[in-house]
Write a structure and sequence with these properties.
The structure is a homodimer. Chain A is α/β, with parallel strands linked by helices. Chain A is built from 16 helices and 25 strands. In chain A, the strands form five sheets. A nine-stranded mixed sheet of chain A has the order 2-1-11-10-12-13-14-15-16, with helices on both faces. Chain A has a seven-stranded mixed sheet with strand order 7-6-5-3-4-8-9, sandwiched between helices. In chain A, strand 14 and strand 15 form a beta hairpin. The longest helix of chain A has 17 residues. Chain A is globular and about 70 Å long. The termini of chain A are far apart. The interface between A and B is large, with 94 and 94 residues.
Amino acid sequence: MTEYPMSPLMGQMMDQPLLISSIFAFAARHYGDTEIVSRRVEGDIHRYTYRDCERRARKLAHALAGLGVKTGERVATLAWNGYRHMELYYGVSGSGAVLHTINPRLHPEQIAYIVDHAEDQFLFFDLTFLPAIELMARQCKTVKGYVALCGREHMPANTGIPMLMCYEELVDAAPPDFAWPQFDERSAASLCYTSGTTGNPKGALYSHRSTVLHAYASAMPNALNVSSSDVVLPVVPMFHVNAWGLPYSVPLSGAKMVYPGAALDGKSLYELFEAEGVSFSAGVPTVWLGLVNHVLQNDLRFSTFRRTVIGGSACPPALMDTLIDRLRVQVVHAWGMTEMSPLGTACTLGYRHAALPAEEQRAVLRKQGHAIYGVDMKIVDDDGGELPWDGTTYGHLLVKGPWVVSGYYRSDEGDVLQDGWFPTGDVATIDGDGYLHITDRSKDVIKSGGEWIGSIDLENIAMAHPAVLQAACIGVPHPRWSERPLLVVVRRPGMELAREDLLAFYEGKVAKWWVPDDVVFADSLPVGGTGKIQKNRLRDLYHEHRLPTA
Amino acid sequence: MTEYPMSPLMGQMMDQPLLISSIFAFAARHYGDTEIVSRRVEGDIHRYTYRDCERRARKLAHALAGLGVKTGERVATLAWNGYRHMELYYGVSGSGAVLHTINPRLHPEQIAYIVDHAEDQFLFFDLTFLPAIELMARQCKTVKGYVALCGREHMPANTGIPMLMCYEELVDAAPPDFAWPQFDERSAASLCYTSGTTGNPKGALYSHRSTVLHAYASAMPNALNVSSSDVVLPVVPMFHVNAWGLPYSVPLSGAKMVYPGAALDGKSLYELFEAEGVSFSAGVPTVWLGLVNHVLQNDLRFSTFRRTVIGGSACPPALMDTLIDRLRVQVVHAWGMTEMSPLGTACTLGYRHAALPAEEQRAVLRKQGHAIYGVDMKIVDDDGGELPWDGTTYGHLLVKGPWVVSGYYRSDEGDVLQDGWFPTGDVATIDGDGYLHITDRSKDVIKSGGEWIGSIDLENIAMAHPAVLQAACIGVPHPRWSERPLLVVVRRPGMELAREDLLAFYEGKVAKWWVPDDVVFADSLPVGGTGKIQKNRLRDLYHEHRLPTA
């Protein structure tokens, strides 16, 4: 770690480390009666308070010590969004161990790889994932025990899982007098693996300092804007980059927390939104599609839901329009990544936008927005030269900041930074007002005759066609232009759509040379562990596709 | 400084120090075109952008180096809120020196004491303060030069001030290529002296870390709630605890900044609010009284002003009601002190208050509010025993947090903390929801027969009487009860008010034994350097006052 020179005159302020335990101790003390409501895997609704949660997190920390978990050792979770998972967030990190949240949507062999690589000592799991645990338990050499997140009455029998324990018994048996230890704030707090489309997953190892700073920054009005007047339902999973930091930013803001468990379909979410008075939520576009469809098809309306943050991948403009114009839900488009804890930018309007016509405001809101203070960003060409912020020049996006990784956990990749900046793998423009617009992944950008074509813009246009359910645009080899865009489309059930009609739909919406050279129709698109379309698989599939222009 | 143990596993995040220069570099880069508008001492309106401001701050940093100012050395300002003062905020602290903002309302001998105690190397001043500088320049031994904040055309002649320089010449002559140095974030950044009512002023020495953390925390929605959609006018002076941190929290939020200069009367403020579209402001109650009176007397309304933070002393309920009910300005009651950078609490409603009747909501808003995450607080009895949070038990208020002082600059007082907590000198209750209510200063509380009577509550009731302009309540000696309350009142010009009528006004508003024993009428009340009523002087004045109950 870098040591910076000290001034001959140091400040005379209290020297307190930024620790995750301090967030929860604060919530328990200052917002002790504020509720945490969870839809459990068991099926019922569970409710208690920040005070209760912190008390159980301290009992859990005690139990972990009893199991022999030491400072810096990894404890894994395979769990949905719920109060027990939150107790693990605080109990594990707060006690000085490292919380390793595993994405259960990964393939079992990837999970086994991750558990081995992280050298997890214990694994806590929701009953949903019992079959996966049964499959992999004998492969995971470092794991000393498995803990089922349930009470004795729900414990599975005859599982064949070695050292299977019951969470509620573990917590119940522990005394509540655990005092959160104080240690260097740069100590590791949690670990999250990226689900790379190629190669093995790589671990981002967050520190207490990075987590607390990210929590402050992400709660600010320009970002997630979380306050004690909010009731927050994180749809984004706690196994996906710490649910975008909401398990930290919500308690420090004193907002009520509502966890949806495993029921993420439109109907279940809508009912929970209404029953608990949810005002704010956050998640990836696909979840909102499901919720919005449920609401529209059943002619419902939201009573309290007023604001959502959409990230993970670009929000289709049609979805944004429906949320804002028909359902009166404010949409904050955000961008980040596992390596950024994850928040990099969020899109809110500035004081100068207030006087703009609604159409122009909407055009701003479609961008990924402004860097949050703490994050710096730049766009560069293939040689690393910085490019202008003019809203049209495309470049590779690089970032830095105190909640950006400096490397990967136990990686032999060498320095992953470029001159101290982290290469995001995204391609973007930045306009004169500082608004970022992600146009593509560096590996997905279509290089046509030396110029770049952004695949996401082309997909968004296709998605706006009423007969299109899903669309992906990839570059395929072209003898003259090196690459040209090919559109792969899934039609809406029961709807007709001809190749020529879809291509005509691009007229006037993009430059002529951006219009895809061809369209193929498919029954479905390949989707990876985090719900994103796997374009590398599409490229393999259509590598030999002969374009009519070739 | 405390060193905390490191974990065997440290996080792998970028190691960047939290430095004040990073706020401004961020604003210049990401909100480069956002405006800073200042009413100058010269009389005109000056406007430029964050980009311009940062460029000049770098030139200033270069100039300071040229003057021989070294890391950790103090540079003083005696200046109003304006863009040049902001350049000093960043240029001085950013370069590693320490910005010492002096309150010009202090007595000249206090100012000379402070300058000597701080060992200020240079003093930058607005022309308003030329007479004060002329008086004290020869007394201040450590000061190597004085810099007038103006251009050559406004430089005063024949002042007798040694080493008098012109700010604009200094900045103009410096090259703009200064690179902000990187150093330990706990290094001293700025210095602010408390204007203690007794004894010499004491210096709070803020660090870069405490300032940046305070900026994050104070920008959050539960606190000042600053966003890029705001146009912010800090009425609270930049010489008063860094204008409550707004010169930091506003740029990092990308809001437009409007500085009022020396013109703080109702008419000047109103005109600037309207001309610049101010949406948010912050200041002490007396300033709002002037502004509100101007607006009401001239039958005006605010076009854009929507929210204000009121602190420094308790907001009179009548003022709060007028702002909210008649002028539709949201009032955030806040509490803090010089030793807390200054923000400790802010009062906003939680999700559970939404369903309450307006009257009950207002009762919550009259409190000083909730601790901001980072600050912890407790109330204790005379022996240091912690008291319950029930909304009625009074106790001495103690605080801690990373932006609370651990001691005073060059002080021989010894440990000012109690068991690691800073004693605020305030008396308060905290209710079950965590809302703080300051009821008095520890030294102003009236101790009647072993029970405490809060002087502020009694003053607020008197202030609500239509014939009362100002009121102060003090304890005076009583043979049986040790102390009993005496009310000192200034009547509104041309209005009649009898002692008996005012005492009858308390009926049903407080417990019988709280009703003051007597009322005396005065032409004015003594006021100190920060605009607060000097109760110690009142106590001296009325020490011999014979209560009718004695």
